[in-house]
Design a protein that fits this description.
Blueprint (H helix, E strand, L loop, with lengths): L5 E7 L2 E9 L39 E6 L2 E5 L1 H5 L8 E9 L8 E9 L4 H14 L1 E9 L2 E10 L2 E7 L22 H13 L12 H14 L19 H22 L10 H17 L1
């Protein structure tokens, strides 16, 4: 069982719920080390002064904020330490807002909150109350000397804390160029587009989606580690730009219906009657399992 990365309590009103925080997401990014191509030795990074070319010991480093090119304000570590927020060990809920009011752009990193033995009852009470009211707790928490804005929300039988971006960290759409103006599409084009969307609509089954690039890289690494001879695949032809919107919509819709008919025939169901998402998901996952095993 993973160890908690933080312990404290959720505070709302006069109620305190003792909790432990666990990581909710484990990133599976493939990391490479830099090596010397001739002998395979690790490359070592050094801190070198650009003025005299000498290596600088860690204790001689200072923090500087660049005001303009080449002009810095030097800040002492003690000055920053004095500004660190107090570690209160509490997740202080300030407001309860509607879940539908939060744009996913504001979400950042998620953590599970697990109740302490003493906090099981108030934990469940808070979870059920937020689920029934469709509310999310907006809170502040201090972790590793940094204060975070966060959202506390029910996910199944657990409370999840998600750190959030502040409003000035989210890029405003007003800064974007090239966004389309009022719709210039015809009613027929809109109808075809809606039909195409509906033909591809299904329930979200996260196990159906894989990081195919990471899987390909790992296969490459495993093959090279086993000394296999590798053949470079030819580059895929680039997709031609779409010129005729209606033709593209009609072709996409026809391909979608043909795909549904083939899936229905393979599953022994009449064409035109979509299979249940649960059934399709189980077939997909079982096939995926066989591919991975091979």
């Amino acid at each position: 069982m993973p160890r908690p990365i933080w312990s404290g309590s959720i505070s709302f009103g006069l109620v305190n719920v003792p909790v432990k925080m666990h990581t909710a997401v484990r990133k599976k990014t493939i990391r490479f080390h830099q090596l010397h191509a001739e002998d395979g030795a690790r490359i070592q990074q050094k801190r070198v002064c650009t003025l005299d070319g000498e290596e600088v010991p860690y204790e001689d480093l200072a923090k500087g904020y660049e005001l303009s090119p080449g002009q810095y304000v030097v800040i002492d570590p003690e000055e920053l330490d004095a500004l660190d927020p107090a570690a209160t060990q509490t997740i202080d809920i300030e407001d309860f807002v509607s879940l539908d009011d939060i744009d996913p752009l504001y979400y950042d990193t998620s953590y599970y909150l697990v109740p302490d033995v003493r906090g099981a009852k108030p934990y469940r009470l808070l979870l059920d109350a937020m689920r029934e009211t469709n509310r999310v707790g907006i809170a502040r928490v201090v972790m590793r000397t940094k204060q975070y804005l966060c959202a506390v929300r029910p996910v199944g039988d657990a409370l999840v804390l998600t750190t959030m971006n502040f409003v000035d960290e989210v890029v405003s759409r007003d800064e974007l160029e090239g966004l389309p103006g009022p719709s210039e599409t015809s009613e027929r084009e809109l109808t075809m587009a809606r039909q195409l969307v509906e033909s591809l609509a299904t329930g979200f089954e996260p196990e159906r989606y894989h990081d195919t690039y990471r899987e390909a890289v790992m296969s490459l690494i495993e093959a090279k580690a086993e000394g296999q001879e590798l053949v470079t695949q030819p580059a895929a032809a680039s997709t031609a730009p779409v010129i005729d919107l209606m033709a593209a919509l009609e072709a996409s819709l026809a391909a979608s219906k043909d795909g549904q008919g083939k899936r229905a025939a393979a599953g022994g169901e009449p064409a035109g009657e979509p299979s249940e998402p649960e059934g399709r998901g189980s077939k997909s996952s079982s096939k995926g399992g066989r591919r991975r095993a091979s």
